[in-house]
Amino acid sequence: MDIYLYNTLTRSKEKFEPLEEGKVRMYTCGPTVYDYFHIGNARSFVVADVIRRYLEYAGYDVTFVMNITDIDDKIINRAAEKGVEANDVAREFTEAFFQDIEALGVRPADVYPKATETIDDIVRHVEGLVKSGAAYVVEGDVYFSVEAFPEYGKLSGKNIEELVAGALVEKDERKRNPADFALWKAAKPGEPSWESPWGRGRPGWHIECSVMSQKYLGETFDIHAGGNDLIFPHHENEIAQSEALTGKQFVRYWLHFGFLRINEEKMSKSLGNFITAREALKKWPAYGIRFFFLQTHYRSPLNLLPEGIEGAVKGAAKFRAFRDELDTMDDGARSFDAEPYRERFARAMNDDFNTPAALGALFDLMHDVRAAALDGGIDRPSIDAVRDFFDRAVDGVFGILPPPQEALPGAGDALVGDLVQILIDVRNDLRKERNFALADRIRDALAAAGVTLKDGKDGTAWSYSPPESTTRG
RNA sequence: GGCGACGUACCCAAGUGGUUAAGGGAGCGCUCUGCAAAAGCGUUAUUCGGCGGUUCGAAUCCGCCCGUCGCCUCCA
To answer: Which of A6, A160, A312, A427 is positioned for an S-S bond with A442, CB 3.0–4.6 A?
Structure first.
């Protein structure tokens, strides 16, 4: 089955045909490491992660690159505030970035190029643009001349005249056109800087992504993804800088993600209405946050509602319960064909990564497997086939399968488990004696400690999760 | 002002011309239970922001109106 995806460049869904058969070269704009990233940024990282995982599920060999912008005005400003070196800020938040995406279950990219480690390549690229006349030097700054690139505006649907007429473009007498943008910035006193043909300075933001992506993926690559707000000017400028030098198409498919909103408003650092991914992960498990994101199509805006994430946590928990059932399911005589569900899943995902529809297929699979299991039982090969697909989809592609109970903190400890079991045994004796008051006291006390008891036909099972009472705020 | 997205049940959200409008959460009923919890099962929109139009047929196409949001400036 073919994959179709919505390409911002053509404003339409297109059949995905990678440059090289069976191989995908993909790039996503990574963080500027001046602070913790927020839950809205997390949505982009998770969505990109799921797209990458699905392409691999679909059989592609994916090379996935994400940059780290580790030199930038914001980093310099933050360092000045804290009274430390820009380096220190970058190092601290690069480390935090890796911790947080790991906690979110985002699989590592193949390469994480850093701007400060790509300076030579950036300088060469800018030099090339200056030589070709697409860029010009003014007092140690280098600007890209938008008029030198006739196709400027093709991604965002803007044109230079309108941008200039928009009057919001800051006037800078040194620029030939107000829409021109900096490729290289001359160093101000005290700022980190590198040698260049135009004196000491540092790269502009846009050029980093162009150079870092092309360095690892080639002059033309398949997919470049990022948030909607990067379409203009960031990605527009990337195209201009890249294609003006190579004369080749820079990126074949541009994917853009919808925003996470809070109170119907875009969540952003500048509006100050954000919560960091780090804070969110203290409140909710990663699988719940991921499930919450995937319940909405990646291009649509998504309103952050605590009850929404709580619902997502519960939804994801059903996957775990079902997965455990599969392991203990008695085999029966009937066969169950998982293929229609696999097809529905693939059809949904192939249609511009329609994760909500794909989730629907997975829930129907659970429902129908249970119904079949009740109605005579399913044979072993069918159970195995369901489990194989289920694991590859829920865990492999979406990354939303909650960990088994044993993996939860505290519950894996042998002594803790023994103590809980002793209490359960005592309580069950009390129940036999119909001393329910004391039995319930044990149950309530355990519940307060995070241990939930489930009385069933075959005895009492228990599970652990961090107590609700520790919620903060 | 220019460009663009969206408005589907109590909440979230698929579906973009044709059988009964997916799925999740919540509510309700049931099973299980000493009672719970958890889990499972069942159930909840003659209707898709409003008004017109095209069509044998529209949530789906067209027009207008109302409402929400985004980009045009750093931002995922």
So the answer is: A427
Model pLDDT for residues A365-389, shown as the tens digit of each residue: 999 999 999 888 899 999 999 999 9
Residue–nucleotide distance: A411 CA to B35 C1' (Å): 27
pLDDT digits (tens, 9 = 90+) for A49-73: 999 999 999 999 999 999 999 999 9
Range of the domain at A236: 4-266
Q: Which of residues 233-262 of A touch strand B (CB under 7 A)?
A: 233-234, 257-261
The 10s digit of each residue's pLDDT in A255-295 is: 999 999 998 899 998 888 999 999 999 999 999 999 999 99
User: Of A230, A250, A266, which one is at a domain's C-terminal end?
Assistant: A266
End of a domain among A355, A377, A403?
A403
The dihedral sign for the CA sequence A294, A296, A302, A306: negative
Token pair recorded at residue A316: 């994801």
Chain A window 184-213: residues with CB closer than 7 Å to nucleic chain B are 205
Helix (H) or strand (E) holding A161: helix A160-165
- Whether nucleic acid strand B comes within 7 Å of the CB of A227, the answer is yes
Q: Is the CB of A326 under 7 A from strand B?
A: no
Tell me, yes or no, whether A234 and A372 share the same domain: no
